[in-house]
Amino acid sequence: MKPHVTFWGVAGLGLVWNLIGCLNYVAQTSPEAVAQMSEVAQVMITGRPAWATGAFAVSVFGGAVGCILLLLRRRTAVWMLGAGVLGSLGTAYFTARVLGMVPSVALATLISMALLWYGTIALRKRWLH
After folding, report:
1. Sequence-ordered list of residues with C-beta below 8 angstroms from that of 18, at least 6 positions apart, any chain
2. Where do the domains of the chain lie?
3. What ranges in the chain are assigned the alpha helix state H?
4. Burial of 88 (0-12, 13-18, 19+ CB in 10 A)
5. CB-CB contact of 127 with 69 (8 Å)
6. Residue 21's closest CA among 74, 58, 73, 52?
7. What percent of the chain has a predicted confidence (pLDDT) above 70?
8. CA dist., res. 10 & res. 118, Å (int)
9. 30-62 CB burial, b ≥16 within 10 A, e <16
10. 8 A C-beta contact, residue 73 and residue 31
11. pTM here?
């Protein structure tokens, strides 16, 4: 079945969003980039436990791969988007414990959940194979 035109927009915008997250993740692994950040950001990044860094990676890279799979109309997109949601929840949990709820992290979590929800709709409508 052919997807609705909004499918391509949602999947494309989701990919752009997650690619920006991937760039953010890569920047946080660069000592030079971290040195340019605020003191609070530096402390949070350098003191972040490995599981929280891993959750961040799963969130953004899982979301990006999930959106690529959506654009390719693959059923496995839903699993990757689900992994992205789990990673996003882990990131939100860590951030909330350290800084309190940060609006950008809450927004990222909501967007990852919305992409998963949309992926399940696409699966039910048989837009994915």
Report:
1. 60, 61, 63, 64, 66, 67, 84
2. 5-124
3. 5-28, 31-35, 39-46, 50-71, 76-99, 103-124
4. buried
5. no
6. 58
7. 100
8. 8
9. eeeeeeeeeeeeeebbeebeeebbebbbbbbbb
10. no
11. 0.92
Please give the backbone phi and psi of residue 127, each rounded to the nearest 5 degrees, phi first.
Answer: -85, -15
Q: For 18-55, how does the pLDDT look when each residue is reduced to its tens digit (9 = 90+)?
A: 999 999 999 999 999 999 999 988 988 998 999 999 99
User: In the structure encoding, which two tokens stand for residue 27, read together?
Assistant: 């920047």
Rounded distance between C-alpha atoms, residue 76 and residue 80, angstroms:
6
* Residue 23 tokens, joined: 């760039």
| Residue bearing tokens 């000592």 | 31
